[in-house]
């Protein structure tokens, strides 16, 4: 392997390949920063333009777009509470509250370094551990993927809400939305209300934009206040606030591992990785009540796991031809376009290009720090816009972005309706994240459940037949019971404390 790496290094740092990686990183940050666009879309548009490029130059640009877009999604998530990419949902939880406190620049800096660290760890895992880790992915069958999806739904529904019932209610709403459209198993229409516009289902970008972009704009227009310019100048340290390196180091370590492991599992993705990492950071924190109110660890966990998923999702794609997510699937197309056939032979027949591509994932993670540091000075200026101007701009940009994706006025109306619904959900204390995650995980859980039942001919015991399934089921039960356990312990602690106080008073 070392020989292949040494062969790839000269080509990787040739001026044309390095320039491709730099351009790809810049383009990726811009794509991720524009709500409605994603790394998948950016790479898909780029591939036809790389026909005349060398394979390594094209793959280096793809690596730059991939890493850049995953960080770029944090920019509108922090500054405007609009996830630039689906994986930026968890970044909103603490990133935007930090911006409202005048710490927008610090939040962007934390997101930048967290993304770079996660991407670097992921690239190293891809480079060193691809063959052995790919065998782990093979152990996840339809039953295991179903329970993994259910664990993600349960975790986020229970953890994200102070009232688990409201969290589960939001998740159920997302499940219903995810069922709209064509049944993947039978091909029949479901819940489309005889509308051709709903045959394809509710797009995840439509739902994300509606629930996360419109409600804050409505609230902003109603209050005519987000952050006034004088508040920003008084509250933001102008970039001089130091990075809490030691404080964030444990979060980076745990989140990197979570992101890598989730990336290996086909069908999971950065959105699941970031949400699980955020949940774990909150669970293990000494001050869990600060999460959701501007905790730097929340931003670090979400962005680190988000980017740690990048290269690791390519492990099953490169070694087995099984894409871990939609981006990996598009990248497989890019490999085929340049005559590279995914599979074990890829590491033997095209070793210099393959290892060069894996190294480019590491190099673009480092380039991300320089690109993001320069851009952060421009990104923070969005908060200086007057609130009365910012609100209609957000709504206009949202509608234009959604219309440009599908050229559908129906999608624009659906975004507006979902935005109003999301506004009232927030006012009632119903969290939005479980609904979005349910739309992503619901169809996957349904298809894997039905596939499991078909394989086992209706035997429900098949769902519990493997150790991995039993572990995941146990975690789901723990998550569902955790609110009851916490309530019991808090009551017991309160009772013991009151008895101690009564004893002390009687002794006195």
UniProtKB/TrEMBL annotation:
Keywords: Membrane, Transmembrane, Transmembrane helix
Domain of life of the source: Bacteria
One protein family per Pfam: TctA
All residue ranges annotated as the DUF112 domain in the record: 19-437
TM ranges: 12-31, 43-66, 110-133, 145-162, 168-185, 197-218, 257-278, 317-341, 353-380, 387-406, 412-441, 462-485
Listed name of the protein: C4-dicarboxylate ABC transporter permease
Source organism (scientific name): Orrella marina
């Amino acid at each position: 392997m070392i020989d292949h790496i040494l062969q790839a290094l000269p080509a990787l740092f040739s001026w044309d390949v390095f320039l491709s990686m730099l351009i790809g990183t810049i383009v990726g940050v811009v794509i991720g920063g524009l709500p409605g666009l994603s790394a998948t879309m950016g790479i898909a548009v780029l591939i036809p333009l790389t026909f005349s490029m060398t394979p390594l130059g094209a793959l280096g640009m793809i690596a730059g777009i991939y890493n850049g877009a995953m960080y770029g999604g944090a920019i509108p998530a922090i500054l405007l509470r609009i996830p630039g990419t689906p994986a930026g949902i968890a970044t909103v939880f603490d990133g935007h509250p930090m911006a409202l406190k005048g710490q927008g620049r610090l939040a962007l800096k934390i997101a930048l370094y967290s993304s770079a660290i996660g991407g670097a760890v992921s690239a190293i895992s891809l480079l060193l551990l691809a063959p052995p880790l790919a065998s782990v992915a093979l152990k996840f069958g339809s039953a295991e993927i179903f329970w993994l999806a259910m664990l993600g739904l349960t975790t986020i529904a229970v953890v994200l809400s102070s009232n688990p019932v409201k969290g589960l209610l939001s998740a159920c709403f997302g499940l219903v939305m995810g069922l709209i459209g064509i049944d993947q198993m039978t091909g029949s229409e479901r819940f489309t209300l005889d509308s051709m516009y709903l045959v394809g289902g509710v797009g995840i970008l439509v739902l994300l934009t509606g629930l996360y972009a419109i409600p804050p704009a409505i609230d902003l227009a109603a209050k005519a206040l987000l952050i006034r310019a004088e508040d920003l100048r008084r509250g933001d340290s102008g970039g001089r606030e130091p990075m809490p390196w030691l404080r964030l180091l444990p979060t980076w370590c745990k989140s990197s591992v979570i992101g890598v492991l989730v990336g290996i599992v086909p069908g999971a993705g950065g959105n699941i990785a970031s949400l699980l990492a955020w949940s774990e950071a909150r669970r293990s924190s000494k001050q869990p009540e600060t999460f959701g109110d501007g905790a730097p660890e929340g931003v670090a966990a979400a962005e680190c796991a988000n980017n740690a998923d990048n290269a690791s999702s390519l492990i099953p794609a490169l070694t087995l031809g099984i894409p871990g997510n939609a981006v990996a699937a598009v990248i497989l197309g890019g490999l085929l376009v340049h005559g590279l056939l995914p599979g074990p032979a890829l590491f033997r027949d095209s070793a210099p290009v393959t290892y060069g591509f894996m190294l480019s994932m590491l190099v673009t993670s480092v380039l991300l720090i320089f690109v993001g540091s320069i851009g952060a000075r421009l990104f923070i200026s969005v908060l200086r816009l007057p609130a009365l101007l910012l609100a209609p701009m957000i709504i206009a940009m949202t509608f234009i972005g959604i219309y440009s994706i599908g050229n559908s006025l129906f999608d624009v109306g659906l975004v507006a309706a979902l935005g109003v619904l999301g506004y009232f959900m927030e006012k009632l204390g119903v969290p939005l994240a479980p609904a979005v995650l349910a739309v992503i995980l619901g169809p996957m859980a349904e298809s894997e459940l039905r596939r499991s039942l078909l394989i086992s001919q209706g035997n429900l015991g098949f769902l519990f037949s493997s150790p991995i399934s039993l572990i995941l089921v146990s975690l789901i039960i723990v998550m569902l019971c955790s609110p009851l356990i916490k309530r019991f312990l808090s009551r017991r602690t309160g009772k013991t404390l009151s008895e101690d106080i009564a004893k002390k008073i009687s002794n006195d």
